[in-house]
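Q: My labmate handed me this sequence with no annotations at all. I'd like to see what the chain might look like in three dimensions before we decide whether it's worth expressing. Could you predict it?
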Amino acid sequence: MNLVESLERQMAQPNPNVPELHVGDTVRVHVRIVEGDRERVQPFQGTVIRSRKGGVNANFTVRRVASHGVGVERTFLLHSPRLERVEVLRHAKVRRAQLYFLRDRRGKAARLKERRN
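A: Here is what I predict for the chain of 117 residues:
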């Protein structure tokens, strides 16, 4: 058995720190940050604009609008040991697999309709 195949089979199990994510969800991602010899947890809250499956390489991209209206996007590996936990705050009704159109929208135009379960 190939070492890469065995690792992929082991990582195929879902990450216990990450719930099921969908595009359009508003999430708070708690990430471990290393600064010198210290380590801390930093939350990053935003909207999931892209989710990519693919076993070990699965990742998702979160976008938020920082100060002065500057958009910030971060891509997180789903199976990364740096992910402390992910909280899903709300779900949105979307009709696209990737929400790249949100990059061009500002203010109220960038809102997504909430999906209630």
